[in-house]
Amino acid sequence: MTSPKRFGELPASAKQQPTPFELHVEEQKLQDLKTLLRLSPVAKQIYENLQDDGSHGKFGVSRKWVVDAKKYWEEEFDWRKEEAHINSFPAFTTTIKDEDGSDYTIHFTALFSRNPSAIPIAFFHGWPGSFLEFLPLMTLLREKYTPDTLPYHIIVPSLPGFTLSSHPPLRKDWKVADTARIMHKLLLSLGLTSYLVQGGDIGSLVSRVIAATYAECKGMHLNFMFISGIWDKSTPDDELTAQEKAGLERLDDFSTTGNAYAKMHGTRPSTIGLVLASSPVAHLAWIGEKFLAWSDPATAPSLHTIVADITLYWLTECFPTSIYTYREMKELLYVDKPMGYSYFPHELAPVPRAWAEKTGIMVFFRAHEKGGHFAALERTEVLWEDVEEFVRIAWK
To answer: 3-state DSSP call for residue 196?
Structure first.
């Protein structure tokens, strides 16, 4: 069913009619959150949590940041305003039937064009992100175009296990390939016989599996390349730029001191899931640290943006179901299709161009002087310019 909102008219070729969706959290749930925030203690001062460079220190997020962010969350943050902003975009839910007969409810927000030649692009978020990562980009496009002039269909799903989509099944394990299959089926259900994909973090893994597996996908643009098998220590140092050498130092630092969270997600998901589900302040510290440590300080998302993301995680109770990808090794899949790569220097694992171009047919590359892991939030216009240039090259 077409949404009455601007850009909400489904392609005429859509094979099934998704249901228009608006988010509305029950007031009691919001009041419960406020109560839990008020009653949740912050750990006492210790040497480690007093190390503070303004947001976090060498031992993790600082106590001061958590105290200040908790105060903002309690006293200033207005979920209803955030909800109204979310609901200003066309959004839908639809049922995707998997190959074993299971049904999954998938949420997505979108900007659909009336142009019969519009190019479909699916944007896939990562962890600890959500579809909220791409709302600034969608804002940019709806301000620039009308439904008649928009040259693209922009589809931004919530991945299974995240926020507003169904969680993975309770009786079997779930892999990136499973998420990729459901996302592909979603795009086909919209009548899209060919499309492009874009992603960062986990979204880059989903994009790569889709591009390597399904003929309907004609190419991928990524801003994250951190997967097993990509390391190429044989590349001579003189083939790496000064920026890339600095990036590899950042990667080494992440591998040494920054990836304990990932090991916890991958080896003890039950434990960390139960811990995080017990307290909104636990969410604040665990997820907030990632936004702080993985962003470029010059382009970092605002406290409001961070709190909005964490609030959505808390209200949808999705943290325990959002970390399944950490249990599997992300083996390299070569993509025999056009690939674009945007390099941001404060990415937690900035992979050099020489390494990345061995994983696909690289037709677009651009290195930027600023920006980090959350490129769609940190450098919205720059990322979109890269994607648009990639599309001009890749879409034939």
So the answer is: strand
> What are the tens digits of pLDDT across the range 241-257?
999 999 999 988 888 89
Residue (of 279, 344, 334, 362) closest to 35 by Cα position:
279
Half-sphere exposure of 68 (CA within 13 A, CB side): 13
Q: C-alpha angle 151/193/174, rounded to 5°?
A: 110
Give me the residues paired with residue 57 across strands. 60
Choose the catalytic residue: 178, 201, 296, 386: 201
**CA 255/CA 263 separation, integer angstroms:** 11
Tell me, yes or no, if 47 is annotated catalytic: no
- Do the Cβ atoms of 302 and 377 come closer than 8 Å? no
From the list 184, 309, 373, 386, the catalytic residue is 373
145-197 pLDDT per residue, tens: 999 999 999 999 999 999 999 999 999 999 999 999 999 999 999 999 999 99
DSSP result, 157-193:
EPPTTSTTSPPPPSSS---HHHHHHHHHHHHHHTT-S
Which amino acid does the sequence have at 277? A
Confidence of residue 126 (pLDDT cuts 50, 70, 90): very high
What's the chain's Rg over C-alpha atoms?
Answer: 20
Encoded tokens for 257 = 């001191």
Do the Cβ atoms of 218 and 320 come closer than 8 Å?
A: no
How many residues are there in the chain?
396
Please confirm, yes or no, whether 201 is among the known catalytic residues: yes
Domains annotated on the chain, with CATH: 19-23+87-250+325-394 (3.40.50.1820)
Catalytic residue among 195, 313, 326, 343: 326
Active site (annotated) includes residue 85: no
Alpha carbon 209 to chain centroid distance?
Answer: 16
